[in-house]
């Protein structure tokens, strides 16, 4: 009687070969995982630039304090031109107009320091004058009367500020040029007059008269 060879030795050899291949693949995968981890640790973090932003909504015409400012990391390609990076460069300076929370503080958004040195007790207030052409005739150092008129009424315009010195004539930002009429003039006035100008600027048409 002829005996057929048992297949067990062949199956065992096949199983050993499969196990060896699995161990090899596992070793390769482990090596790749280690390599990826090492590369991730070796790669430097994305570059960031600390940019000065408004810590909360800011009004125009009021000197900035350290509590009004914060720093936020920005990708270099998103840093606006003229952005400030240190609070010391902004504290004590005055915003030309309102600044939203989180908005970067740029040199164009602030008045130059020292504008009020010749006007003790005054604050710098940005006033939007309805007639842009009239503003183009003004120069820093001029004195103006500010008149307010209700566009819905027939009453004569009233004087709301007298002999207010012009301390700055900010250039219009391109983003604002098509949204708002008129032009900004920064005046040095007492605090109560500044509050009145800010309130009337919302509902009244403001104009200026050059005086000596």
TrEMBL record:
<protein>
    <submittedName>
        <fullName>Flp pilus assembly protein CpaB</fullName>
    </submittedName>
</protein>
<feature type="domain" description="SAF">
    <location>
        <begin position="49"/>
        <end position="111"/>
    </location>
</feature>
<dbReference type="InterPro" id="IPR017592">
    <property type="entry name" value="Pilus_assmbl_Flp-typ_CpaB"/>
</dbReference>
<dbReference type="InterPro" id="IPR013974">
    <property type="entry name" value="SAF"/>
</dbReference>
<keyword id="KW-0732">Signal</keyword>
<dbReference type="Pfam" id="PF08666">
    <property type="entry name" value="SAF"/>
</dbReference>
<feature type="signal peptide">
    <location>
        <begin position="1"/>
        <end position="42"/>
    </location>
</feature>
């Amino acid at each position: 009687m002829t005996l057929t060879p048992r297949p067990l030795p062949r199956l065992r050899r096949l199983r050993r070969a499969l196990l060896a291949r699995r161990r090899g693949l596992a070793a390769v995968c482990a090596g790749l995982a280690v390599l990826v981890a090492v590369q991730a640790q070796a790669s430097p973090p994305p570059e960031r630039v600390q940019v000065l932003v408004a810590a909360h909504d800011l009004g125009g015409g009021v000197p900035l304090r350290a509590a009004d400012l914060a720093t936020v990391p920005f990708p270099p390609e998103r840093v606006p031109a003229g952005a400030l990076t240190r609070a010391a460069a902004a504290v004590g300076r005055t915003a030309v107009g309102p600044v939203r929370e989180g908005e970067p503080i740029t040199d164009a958004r602030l008045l130059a320091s020292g504008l009020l040195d010749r006007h003790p007790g005054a604050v710098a207030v940005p006033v939007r004058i309805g007639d842009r052409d009239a503003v183009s005739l003004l120069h820093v150092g001029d004195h103006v009367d500010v008149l307010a008129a209700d566009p819905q009424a027939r009453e004569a315009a009233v004087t709301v500020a007298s002999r207010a010195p012009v301390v700055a004539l900010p250039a219009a930002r391109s983003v604002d040029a098509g949204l708002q009429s008129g032009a900004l003039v920064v005046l040095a006035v007492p605090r109560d007059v500044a509050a009145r100008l800010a309130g009337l600027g919302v509902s009244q048409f403001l104009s200026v008269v050059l005086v000596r």
